[in-house]
Structures are given as structure tokens and as C-alpha cells.
Amino acid sequence: MQYKSELLAVLHQRGFIHQCTDEGALDRYLAGGRRRGYIGYDATADCLHVGHLMCLMLQRWMVATGHQPIILMGGGTTKIGDPSGKDETRKLLTPETIAGNIQALRTVIERFVPLAAGDDDTGALVMNNADWLDGLNYIDMLRMVGRHFTINRMLTFESVKGRLSREQPLTFLEFNYMILQAYDFLELSRRQDCRLQLGGADQWGNIVCGVELARRMDSREIFGLTVPLLVTASGAKMGKTAQGAVWLDQARLSAYDYWQFWRNTDDEDVGRFLGFFTELPMDQVARLTALKGQDLNHAKQILATEATAIAHGRQAAQAAAKSAVTTFAGGMGTDLPSWVIPKARLSEPGVSVIDALLALAFAASRSEARRLIRGGGARLDGVVITDEAAMIPPTWESSTLRVSAGKKRHGILRQE
């Protein structure tokens, strides 16, 4: 369809739109002025990973097209746990842990989405659903909200149906989650005139519940829009690697490793990822996507640099790109900071290759380091080390030594 609103036009062009409750009505609503839309973030951990990037980019595009996102921290709903996409009940966290996680998540989010400061309404509002959920009376909640939900309807939603079809238990506590999320939408509609909720495709059922609740209780039309759940061309869930989650905080994952994650994108995913995870104009995205063979590596480097610039800043992205070039060209990259490429100093003689792998955090234990060596994955200045008892030479030609673990992890070992 031909969109009147800039936001939907951008989201459609870049591939973000998966489901929408009433696309035509939402388009007309968004075209009518500055609007608010929210995404919720439960505080189950103290960091976000690449799997959250689709939603963060949605909120960046809201700001860029003149709207105001609301970042809803799940201080209340985190105490319940969202069963969507999960086979096990989430661990119940203490209020202190939840509060600490919320503060940590806010720090990560504000690198991607500018936050409103005081009366300045150009950035995102940050709210916490504990402000209204914590004070709810259970009986009043059942009478006010619960009567608008039927068990029959709730059993049709994928978050419930999927769990039951896999014969995994679903607690009554978790079963209430969609009611609380629907109530969040109702509260934001009343408090902030927020009539749009955005989220991943696994949130569709929860979002629809909120849309229906507002219609029944307030006779008000509100809207829901979801983005596709992203899997790579190989079928892997986005943001997960053999080494674990791809974190958005450089304290968890260096800018260099983050850059390398994007540089190693499958050929088939380059075009989609350029649309989703960069802010490059779509005509440039189309030209880069059309590249073939070795030329496609150029597009991957641009993807890596642009995605890293959003997460860690332009300077860190350019330094990571430079580090990758010098490393793969045989250089040392010794002028680069430790958060771009891992470095370690050894002050005593008689250090083993295993010690070096541990010092650079390329292995979590000595047994893991041995397995890496046995598998031919450990190299010193490009030379494969196969002897588990190998020692670092007491002296080497330069004051630095390049240590590699596999094809994608490289670090610098320095003499004191």
C-alpha cells in the first residue's frame, strides 16, 4: 500500500513490518502528527543482546520520523515472567536485582535511543510498569480486567499453545502475564495518549490482548505492530553464537568482536541486515546488496562498521575496522585500545601457550585451551600450535606477539 506516514513508509521499505492490527487506520493516525508508541523491556538480565536490536532500531526510526517512543521498563512484569518463546519458567528475581537490571538496561538503551531530558520531549520517555502494577488489588484487578479475558481465547495464543503442545508446564503465574501486558497498554493509552505498541512477532498475542482490552473498557482504538523474528540464512536464532549471546555492552563484548560478528554475516543475509541494522539510504543498501563474490565482502565491512557505529560510536567502529584489516594483513594493531582488540602483558618467563589463551580470555579453562590446541585452533603469529605443552619463546623478534584462537578471535601478547 501507499503509506501517508513517514514512519510506516520507512519501516515497510526496510522490511520491519510483520503484522499490524489495522495498517490503514494506523497509517492515518501516524500521518496526523507527533505520536507515541511503546516497547516493553523486562529486566530479566542486566544487558541486552543483538536479539533486541530490531526493537531498538524501531524506536530510533520513531525519533527520526518525528514521533516519541516510550521505553517501558518491566519492573512489575519481570516479577511474573513472559512465557513467550520459553519452555521453562523464568527464575523469580528479587526486587533489588530487578532495580539493578533496570538501571543497567537504561544505560545500554540510551546509546541507541536518545532519552527525553526534563521538559525536552525530543527523546524517548522512560517509564516503569511497577508504578501501576505494584499497587493493584487482586480482587479489583480480576473484576476490572480479568472479566474481559476468556480462557478459550487465551489458549489460542502461540505463547500458551506452543508451550502446551511441547508438553511443558505453564504456571498460573505465567498465564497471567498477557493480562498484565494488556493492562500496561491500557494504562499508557490513558496516561500518555500512547496508542501504539511495537514488539517482536512472539508478542503478537499479548499485543492483541491490549488492543481488545482498550476497545472493551474505553471504546478506544489502539494499534499493534510487530517485526519479524529474525533468524539467519542458516536457520540460527539471531544474536546467538557458539560462544554465547552477542551483547550490546562493550564490557561484555568488545567493539572489535562486535564488528567481527557483523563482518561474518552470511552472504544471503547482507541485504536484510543492511536494511535492519544500519541507517544507510535504501538506494545505497540496494547497490551494496547487488555486489557478488569477493566484492560482497565490501558490503559486509560497511555493514559491520555502520552497525558498530550505532552500538559503540563511530570512532570505535573505525578502530575495529582498522584492527581487523591490520590483523588479517599480518599486522599487530598495537596502537589500538584493549576494548577494540584483546591484549595481555606477560612479565615472567616460562609462560605457556595455554597461559596466553587464558590471559586473553580465549579459553575459560586450561582444559578448554588444550582442546583448542588439539583442534589446531591456536596460532602464534599465524603459526599453528599443536603441542599442548608449547611455551611462549622467552624472546621474540618484536615486543608483541599475535595470538589467534580460530579464524575470528585475535589478540596481542606484550612483553613487559
**What are the segments in which pLDDT stays under 50 over at least 5 consecutive residues?**
331-340
SS summary, helix count: 18
Largest sheet: 6 strands, mixed
Provide the helix percentage.
40-55%
- Count all strands and give the number: 13
Instruction: Using the alpha-carbon principal axes, give the shape.
Output: globular
**Global structural class:** alpha/beta
Q: Give the terminus-to-terminus CA distance.
A: 64 Å
Give the strand order of the largest sheet, numbering strands 1, 2, ... along the chain: 1-6-5-2-3-4
What percentage of the residues does DSSP assign to strands (E)? 5-15%
The average pLDDT score comes to: 86
Q: Gyration radius, to the nearest Å? A: 24 Å
Write the layout of secondary structure elements.
Elements: H1 6-14, E1 19-20, H2 23-30, E2 36-42, H3 53-64, E3 68-74, H4 95-112, E4 125-128, H5 130-133, H6 138-144, H7 151-154, H8 158-165, H9 172-175, H10 177-192, E5 196-200, H11 204-218, E6 223-227, E7 240-241, E8 244-245, H12 255-263, H13 270-277, H14 282-289, H15 296-312, H16 314-328, E9 343-346, H17 353-359, H18 366-374, E10 378-380, E11 383-384, E12 400-405, E13 409-415
Parallel strand pairs: 2-3, 2-5, 3-4, 5-6, 9-13
Antiparallel strand pairs: 1-6, 7-8, 10-11, 10-12, 12-13
Helix pairs in contact: 10-11, 12-15, 12-16, 13-14, 13-15, 15-16, 17-18
Q: Could you walk me through the main structural features you see in this protein, from its secondary elements to its overall organization?
A:
- The chain has 416 residues and is α/β, with parallel strands linked by helices.
- Helix content is 43%, strand content 13%.
- It contains 18 helices and 13 strands.
- The chain has helices at residues 6-14, 23-30, 53-64, 95-112, 130-133, 138-144, 151-154, 158-165, 172-175, 177-192, 204-218, 255-263, 270-277, 282-289, 296-312, 314-328, 353-359, 366-374, and strands spanning 19-20, 36-42, 68-74, 125-128, 196-200, 223-227, 240-241, 244-245, 343-346, 378-380, 383-384, 400-405, 409-415.
- The strands form 3 sheets. It has a 6-stranded mixed sheet, sandwiched between helices.
- A hairpin with a 2-residue loop joins strand 7 (240-241) and strand 8 (244-245).
- The longest helix has 18 residues, at 95-112.
- The termini are far apart.
- Residues 331-340 have low confidence and may be disordered.
